[in-house]
Amino acid sequence: METNKLYECTLIIDGGLQDEAIAAAMALVQRVITEKGGSISSVLEIGRRKTAYPIKKKTIGYYAHIEFTAATSVIAEVEKVIRYEEDLLRYLIIHLTSALLEMRKRVEKYSVVIGSPEDSALAEAAAASDTVAK
Fold it and tell me: What job does the chain carry out?
């Protein structure tokens, strides 16, 4: 019997699609993972961003990130299904090893997430000091 391992899947969906089509593509990927025996632990939808270079002649992509646990054999089955989905510009599934998880903890310890309460508090303090200086 195979043991479940932790994986992360990063997706770039065609950003020119309507919100409903993007939601359908996300639901498809999540459904495939769960139907094949995986268990989704977190979903982070980053949103529309400009790509670094054109992918399939598209320059805007909708970025999303899914963390899940699954057996090794499930990954090939999931890739087989999502590989031919036309709305997905790119995808990458990687196994999260203990070294990667440790590195992630160190990065999170020393970084502030953009849009976090700490970040907005710093921005408000900077804006307040600018108005006082004027």
Answer: Binds together with bS18 to 16S ribosomal RNA.
